Amino acid sequence: MSKIVLVTGGNRGLGFSTAKALARSGAVVIIGARAEAAARKAVDTLEEEGLTVDWVELDVTSPPSVRAAAEIIRERYCRLDALVNNAGILPESTDIVEHAFADTSIFRQTFETNTFGPVTVTEIFLPLLHKSVAGRIVNVSSTMGSLTDQNNPLSPYYSMLLPAYRSSKAALNSISVELAKSLKSTPIKVTSVCPGFVQTDLTPISRQQAPLTADEAAQIVVTAATLPADAESGTFIDANGPVAW
Ligand code: NDP
């Protein structure tokens, strides 16, 4: 029986590559996208490759949008085997360089998508994940969220942008741990994943420096979305194994 998988922000970047890789592996992939045109473009591209994918409109910052998407997936598929909380932002603003800590709106905006987004989506999709025999939740995080690994070589521009981003991912990691604890008595496993430094629109300035293509980086997300039954829950991993929290 094919796995039913939802990838938020699946229309481009890492999410698109994850959707493609999962569809190639035989999963029924649902692309969650906040814009219909972008979703259709992604679906068309994958269908040209002979893959079958579905899509739902889904803005992770809008609970009504998430609830509507869950209702559509419940009607079409009755369950969800894997939820990939991929949608994320790294806000761009020249203001941030001057006011990295003074402007809390940047923190709020970043947390709204990167942290509260996955919480909302997970909460609303949990009933469908409970209907799976082996539900998996993947929170696409970053070593930028690690409180241990603070030595990432980045340009000054990024280092000024990063406090809000880093802390949104640190909080997401904490949420992964708490969620794994609360789901301990169920088959559902939760994993925080760092895909590495990836060539996507999220990293436009240093895109050339990013060593990984989105297709390469998607592999670790796929691994987390298809963890075997005996795998540990509540871990933080990248392609090389466990990452220090
Ligand atoms: P991109 O900017 O290329 O893609 C981001 C995706 O998230 C887009 O599909 C975008 O949709 C979607 N998105 C943003 N906000 C929302 C929202 N409110 N609701 C629904 N979808 C939304 O970034 P990446 O592919 O690089 O990033 C994917 C994930 O990987 C993020 O969580 C990021 O933090 C993480 N990551 C990325 C790294 C990198 O080096 N690129 C490194 C470590 C982690 P739309 O097209 O509508 O804007």
Automatic annotation (TrEMBL):
Keywords: NADP, Oxidoreductase. Gene3D superfamilies: NAD(P)-binding Rossmann-like Domain. Belongs to the short-chain dehydrogenases/reductases (SDR) family. This is SDR family NAD(P)-dependent oxidoreductase. It comes from Frankia umida. The lineage of its organism: Bacteria, Bacillati, Actinomycetota, Actinomycetes, Frankiales.
